[in-house]
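Bench notes, bay 3.
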Amino acid sequence: MVEAAVIQHPIATLDDARDCAKRIQAHMRQNVMGRDDVIELVLVSLFADGHVLLEDYPGSGKTTLAKSLGHAIIDDLPKDEIPDFRRIQFTPDLLPSDVTGVMVFDTNTSTFEFRRGPVFAYVVLVDEINRASPKVQSALLEAMAEKQVTVDNICHKLDDLFYVLATQNPLDSVGTYPLPMAQLDRFLFKIRMRHIDRESELEVLRAWGKPREVQQLPRVNRGDVVASRRLLRHGITVATAIQECLVDIAQRLRDDRRIRQGVSTRCLVQAIPALQTLALLRGRDYVSSADLEHLAV
């Protein structure tokens, strides 16, 4: 098998950052059919340093989506021994240590050492997040909010790239623990995935069981994604009018009696890098009203 090429040049301009995002997008589109809109939002959340909650039906391709994202990124820090992708199946009997890691006694040295849990990865797929108890959900909350886990009063840092793609089934609510508002607020997007269109579904059936000619697309370094995040914060202009529009939308939602809880200030802060990323993907160095309308609707 021929190993795909890797971007070697540093991320110095917005064009470099855009090229980095497009390469990841190409990897995901090659493996996931009929989900271009979802792929775009996942990319936006990745480069905006946010997380995504997918409300989907079983067999909709969420694992393939997350795997293709993780495998498009190559570790440029091999000594940290962090994998590109991990999947955690949340169940009612899951413990926080099953996610974060646990202290293990080493008989050779007569000391305890920390054994990392599956949360130590670049891209983490949390399957059926509402199946686990609130105690486990709170352990994941710390990882998402602070990019660290605490075990035996010792904090262990996660990688700067750490990204969570969580799912929940909208049909089956028996034996589930609804996510509290504090945890929902940690997700940049909640995406409701629908079944793919007819032509895409037919293409999946035609390709099933046949050998695929997978094109070896160039992959990207984890450092390129982290550098792109920093670059677009200063390289994409956000006008005062856009900021004022965000605040006005938030005020309208808070005042609407039909809405249980309005938008938090943290949501508004997270919206800025999301808008900047969308502008980057669309080839601009400024956020437009079209970007705001696209994400708001």
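Next record in the batch:
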Amino acid sequence: MRVAYAGVAHSHPFVDAANLRARGALAVGVWDADDGGRRREFAARFGAPEFARLDDLLARHPDVVVATPRTPRAADVAEACARAGVPAFFNKTIAADEAGLDRWRSLPPAPRFTSSVLRFSPALKAFAAALVGRRLRAVEVHAQHDIAAFLEGDRRWQDDPAGAGGTLVNIGIHAWELLDVLVPGATVDVMSAARVIGDVPTSSELRATVHARAGELPVTATVSGVAGADRYAVRVWTDDGIRGLVLPDDLDGLGYDATADAVVRLADGFVAVDAARTAAVYGNALAAARAARDREAPR
């Protein structure tokens, strides 16, 4: 399988490339319009030729594209892949605001999908399967990822609400993907949301809590960028008790391995995540960010 890498804006495509190489894939090239240093690092690590133009990369006739451009470029990259007739998987994030999401949703149909890797976590899938047939009374989702690395140098675009969306979108998308696995296609009405900036030089927020409802189902989402280890977790209330899961903190447990498998299947035409589910996830994340940012945030 021949894989092209359209953007290497953050760490995920480096893990994707290692996992796909372990599955026999060949990296036919890499393009990134914003970060030549990361592009060169990726090229050296995976033996991938560098391309200055995306169209030249796509002219290598890859079987599939792993796309990780900076968020404002995502829709343009998707459009280019569609014109070239190449299936494409997009790492997060593909929209930082409603206008970006509208642009993504207006793209012509093509074999593409985007997702947080967490959606493919084997432990999360097993947890969700065990809930089938049980009535959920409430759901909590929790996404914690230290944002310190996003507050300096060439990674600050991830903390920018106009870049990757800031903490409530860039990290928050993981929380809303967790909800979508447990309650497929859920769209929420945000009842209240509050954020804290903290004593860090963030352009967005350090932490936020969101209270919402998906229909009659109460949903609480915690999105956190405080110092410390990553933590992704869910908890549900059912008539027969409370169940919870903290995702295992390793590449397989977080879903990276299964994401690579989904990319392999995409090359054969199987799209793992329906576009409507993606629209719901991003709609929830953006609504939560808007509600929290409409209020003055304490330090």
